[in-house]
Amino acid sequence: MDYIRNDYETILKRRAAKEEGSYTCYLFEKGIDKILKKVGEESAEMIIAAKNGDNKETAGEICDLIYHTLVMMVEQGISIEDVEAVLRERAEKSGNLKTIHKVDKNS
User: pTM for the whole thing?
Assistant: First the structure.
C-alpha cells in the first residue's frame, strides 16, 4: 500500500506547486464538483467492470477510483492517517455486531 501513500504525496505536491499539463492540477483548478463527478464516474465504471467479470479491467478501474478518491481527500483536507485511524478503529470492532439495520428490500 506504499503506492497509495506515494500517490497521495504526489497529489499533495501537485496541489502546492501547479504543474503545466498535469491532470491532477486540472482537477484542483476545476474544484470539488469536478473531483466528485470523477469519483462517481470511476465508481460506476468499477462496478460495471466487476459485473462483467473482467478482473484486469476491474483492477484498472479500482486504481482510477483510488486516484480520484485521493484527489478528493487532498481537496477536503483528509489525510492518509485520518483514514488509517478509522480503519484501525473498525478493526478493533471487527466481529462485534451490536445492531442490525433494517434494509430496504428494493436497494
Answer: 0.84
Q: Determine the number of helices (DSSP H) and then strands (DSSP E) in the chain.
A: 5, 0
Task: Report the distance separating Cα 64 and Cα 27, nearest Å.
Answer: 14
Position 20: which residue type? E
3-state DSSP helix/strand/coil percent for the chain, to nearest 5? 75, 0, 25
CA 27 to chain centre: 14
Q: Cβ–Cβ contacts within 10 Å for residue 17, how many?
A: 9
**Angle, vertex CA 82, rays to CA 101 and CA 13, nearest 5:** 135
Banded pLDDT at 12 (limits 50, 70, 90): very high
Check: CB of residue 71 under 8 Å from CB of residue 35.
yes
